[in-house]
Amino acid sequence: MTENNEPITWAEEMIQPARAVDHPRLAFMYVIASLCWMAGRAEAAVGYTDACQAVLSTGRFEVPFGIDGLIGAVYLTTGQPERYVEASRAQLARGRGAHPIARASLVLALAAAGSLDDAMSAAPGLVDAAEASGNPSALSLALLAYGYVFRVADPADAARRAGRPGPGRSGVK
Description:
Layout: H1 5-20, H2 26-34, H3 42-57, H4 74-77, H5 81-96, H6 100-112, H7 116-122, H8 126-133, H9 136-153, H10 155-162
Helix pairs in contact: 1-2, 2-3, 5-6, 6-7, 6-8, 6-9, 8-9, 9-10
């Protein structure tokens, strides 16, 4: 996560010039800039997240497939998981919901917001879809979401899935 600081700074530096020319990657820059919450800058991250959602709502911009699940992650750190649910649902409603990162984000958001039944309903097939994507970040997030949701309802399955070997190791193709 530490290695993210430099690209976050680049994105923050590019937002104003990108806004000035209505650059097609403006929403993408907002998503990356919003990750500054990982460095303890939650207030700035909320601002970038809100701006990103406003830009995306125009329908003229989108973010690369897969990164869309990161929109609103800061709300988990600010005690507003309901806002993360809203952001995740809005992104899924834009028709990008098949990606495991977007789905895992919704599952985590629902669980953090106290909607455990909804989170469990959204979780089936998530880990398999993430594994099939070949994206280790998607698999990691899916396993986290699945384990977080099912740690109480089905702790044995959550532990089994959490203990599975990663890509490139025995047991996972």
